[in-house]
Amino acid sequence: MSPHTSRPARHSLWAAVPVLAFLATPFLPFVSGPHLWLGLPSVLVWCVLWTAGTSAALALVEHLAHHGEPEESATPTPEVPR
Amino acid sequence: MNTVMVITLLGIVSIAVVGMTGRRAKSKDLGDWTVGKRGFSSVATWFLQAGESFTTFSFLGLAGLAFGGGVAACYALAYLAISIVLQYLTGPRIWRLGRDRGYITQADFFADRFNSPLLGKVVAVVGAVFLLPYLQLQITGLGLIVQLATGSKAGGTLSMVLATGLTVAFVLWSGIRGLARAAYLKDVLMVVALLALLIAVPLSFDGGVGQLFHDVQDQHPTLLGFHGEYDTTFFVTATVISGIGGGLATMAHLWPPVLSARSPQALRRNYVWLPMYQVALAVPVLVGFAGILLLSPDSGSQEILLTLAGHTMPDWLVAVVAVAAASAAMVPSAAIVMGISTLVSRNLLPARTERSRLRANHVCVVVAAALALVLGLTRPDLLGNLLLLTYGGLSQLAPATLAALAKKNLLGTIPALLGIVTGVAVLAWLTFGGTDIGTWDAGLIALAPNLVVTVVAQLVVRRRTAGAERATTRKEAVAA
Fold first, then answer.
1. A64: contact with B, CB 8 A cutoff
2. Are B133 and B119 in contact (CB under 8 A)?
3. Within an 8 Å CB–CB cutoff, is residue A29 touching chain B?
4. Within 13 A of A52's CA, how many CA atoms are on the CB side?
5. What residues in B contact A43, CB-CB < 8 Å?
6. ipTM (interface pTM)
7. Which of A10, A22, A27 to probe the B interface (max B CBs under 10 A)?
8. Residue A39 lies in a domain
9. A28 Cα to chain B: minimum distance (Å)
């Protein structure tokens, strides 16, 4: 196991940002309600933005975590107890 | 036979033919058939994983949810993104364990990490039993899709039989490589169908999308917020439990796409960009809103998308949407039937040789698909109750999965087993016992007693182990 997976690194916290944004959706009065943003329901726009934001957050985590990491590859594997 | 029916049936056959072209050489063992020597590129892994985001639910359920619940349907976008975040954190770890220890099923992971073949078998039984109604859901969903697109009930039944038979054929012939190949075609069809819907449905509305939502705002303002049975509690609890279930790979058919990847880097690259693909799920939500204004309030929730497609598109384009929707049933069906068959043949049935195990697996594919098809045709409600338990029930594996992903497994077999059994039992009681839980997700509530029992049992086991170790030390000291 590589060192970055052995303990949660601080940069991984960026991945929590979209999660919190999604879960906060119904509690934000400027989002939840009969509002239209750009002619679309505010909740729909908010969720689409944060879906894209999830990619951005994971790209940031990936950029901070794995710079220069060598590529791993699959090797022959032993049997497991069944 | 009308144009839509002809194109739809040809489309179903084409998906299977493309799946069959995925075969390279005859698989000699179950590992090759299931995870393809763990050599899949980012592209192949992408399509396998993206395939899990778009099922019959995307075409039938999501538009229907927006039709009845408004913006609450956005929970699908939320939970899928959250599950990708969790997969980004756990997927590479699962891949490394799979490579180092030779996993090809979810139950392998449990058997190995808990050093308990018994727990592996329990997980295999739970996984296979709960996945069967999910398989049936895809097959009956496909029948409904064709029925709605063609207006022919007999056509729907025929397509269910044809699609199931062809799915079994390409899965047996090509294994996971066929699944990946069919997923390529599926995703192309999905993009075409969603773009067509995105253009055609608003065009049919006087004033376009902008006017559509202004009218919704005027006539149905509650649908732009969280209300009634689709309130804040529904949104949060359904998002959390579905995100956990998907993110911690509690469904057995989610494992082969991860285990078959060439490297953890390939997986992570995909996880970064998969949410961008899931943005496309906003289209069925938009179509559901259009249905609020264009269709009768009495319309069946599952009929919204294809009914609107029929009202706004030429026949040939409706057929393309129907083929895309059919592919969104066939590809997940193929993955699910593989998930069930590998659990049974690898973790439950004895086999002397790898060749006989592969043969047993192939029999399981046929039996599982036939069972789901026959029950879907003759007793569609029989597995319906079990389906209510599928998502929440399998999510009860989440605490044990998370604990076992740690460098050293944090849980013993007994606490893990007690937690899973408690969670599933509480879920069954909440689902069938008539208990009023409001709009809470029963699976999330059941996770609480699951966690309490798991933690308490673990503390008891640790205390007993520590006591036994102290007694042994004392005996050795006295003997010395």
1. no
2. no
3. no
4. 8
5. 71, 74, 224-225
6. 0.92
7. A22
8. yes
9. 11
* Alpha-carbon B187 to chain mean position: 16
Joined together, the tokens standing for residue B417 give: 């087993």
**In 3-state terms, what secondary structure has residue B449?**
helix
Sign of CA dihedral B383, B388, B394, B396: negative
How many structural domains are present in chain A? Answer: 1
* Cα B245 from Cα B247, distance rounded (Å): 6
Q: Tell me the residue range of the domain where A46 lies.
A: 11-20+34-53
User: For A48, which of B31, B236, B282 is closest by C-beta distance?
Assistant: B282
A12, A58, A60, A62, best to mutate vs chain B, most B CBs in 10 Å: A58
| Residue A1 domain flag | no
SS3 call for B418 = helix
Contact A74 B407 (CB under 8 A): no
- From B160's Cα to the closest Cα of chain A, the distance in A is 34
pLDDT tens-place string over residues B101-139: 999 999 999 999 999 999 999 999 999 999 999 999 999
A72 contact residues in B (CB cutoff 8 A): 96, 263-265
* Count of pairs with CB atoms under 8 A, one residue in A, one in B: 161
What topology is assigned to B3-386 in CATH? Sodium/glucose cotransporter (1.20.1730)
Chain B CB contacts of A20 below 8 Å: none
Q: Look up residue B221 and give its amino acid.
A: P
Q: Specify if A69 maps to a domain.
A: no
Closest chain A residue by Cα to residue B236:
A23
Q: How far apart are CA A12 and CA A61, in angstroms?
A: 6
Cα separation, B43 vs B386, whole angstroms: 35
Angle at the Cα of A76 from the Cα atoms of A71 and A80, rounded to 5 degrees: 115
The neighbour count for residue A46, using CB atoms within 10 Å, is 26
Q: Would an 8 Å CB–CB cutoff place A60 in contact with chain B? A: no
Instruction: Classify residue B40 as left (phi > 0), alpha (psi -120 to 50) or beta.
Output: beta
Amino acid (one-letter) located at A3: P
Per residue in A13-69, pLDDT (tens digit) is 999 999 999 999 999 999 999 999 999 999 999 999 999 999 999 999 999 986 555
